[in-house]
Amino acid sequence: MANIVPGKSSLDTSDLLSRTIINLTEGITGIAASERKDLYLSLGYIFQRFRSGKFLQTLKNEWDLLREKGRIKDGYMDTEQHQECLQEMLDFLDKDSPDENRFKLLKEIFLAAATELISDRASVLPQQYMKICRALSSGEVLVLLAVFAIAKAGGWDPNDMGAQNWLNQIAEKSALQYTELIEVHERNLIDKNLITPRTHSDNSGVKLGNHFRLSNLGYNICLFIESYEEKTDT
Predict the structure, then answer these.
(1) Do the beta carbons of residue 13 and residue 82 sit within 8 Å?
(2) What domains appear along the chain, each with residue ranges and CATH number?
(3) What is the pLDDT of residues 62-85, one digit of tens each?
């Protein structure tokens, strides 16, 4: 994938994405034409590159649409923020094993930042949000968004509740079904400071706070992600 040099934008972002897609396609074709033993060893790699190409095309289509609508201002592509966020996205697709949930999160942070409707180009938060979300697993994304959905819907008792009750609600909202699975992701999200720890010495309770256990960081990342769909529909 292409490397971005901060402060130097010799290529339009849409053109860069197009060239990267072409390079991915040519790379897959080259592997497919290699010796059979090499192909066997590269099947997983081919599939990852194929998915990366699909995600890149989705990103390019949405980027181009925002540009056509005038939602991305001239000069934004030359900013440090854009180039760092673009590099983070390309590294994610090139070096990680991309999946739909994580890609969607990163894409929406990337494009929300580009519209400058909830942040400005001088902010360093979009880069930080992308790094945090890139480190999440697909299951952690589902749990994070389920907590945010319940927090936004309201109607729940703001007082403390039993941990099992909280787990049951998240399991249902996230469609992950098993509370044991929610607990796995819960621990990781606590470690990443996106939800608050349990309370009581036996960890039997949770303090809901203002956002159904989301930390201020977790809640504001979710608001940033939500802003892309809310503010770019029209």
Answers:
(1) yes
(2) 13-135 (no CATH), 138-225 (1.10.10)
(3) 999 999 999 999 899 999 999 999
**For residues 159 and 178, what is the distance between their CA atoms, to the nearest angstrom?**
24
CA distance linking residue 197 with residue 11, whole number of Å: 45
Q: How many CB atoms neighbour CB 225 within 10 A?
A: 23
Which tokens hold the place of 167?
């787990």
CB of 208 within 8 A of CB of 159? yes
Other CB atoms within 10 A of residue 135 CB: 12
* Residue 97 CB-half CA count within 13 A: 5
How many Å apart are CA 117 and CA 69, to the nearest integer? 14
Q: Which two tokens stand for residue 162?
A: 């039993």
Residue 102 has pLDDT above 60, yes or no: yes
Could you report the per-residue pLDDT of 4-49, keeping only the tens digit for each?
444 444 458 888 888 777 776 665 555 554 555 455 456 666 777 7
pLDDT, averaged across the chain: 86
**Closest of 115, 11, 24 to residue 71, by C-alpha:** 115
Tokens for 188, please give them: 């990781």
Name the token pair of 150: 């319940």
In 94-164, beta strands by DSSP E:
161-162
Please tell me which residue, 102 or 3, carries the higher pLDDT value. 102
pLDDT tens digits for 199-214? 877 788 999 999 999 9
Structural contact between residues 205 and 198, judged by C-beta atoms closer than 8 angstroms: yes
Neighbours of 157 (CB within 10 A): 7
Q: Which residues have C-beta within 8 Å of that of residue 147, sequence separation ≥ 6?
A: 170, 195, 211, 212, 213, 214, 218
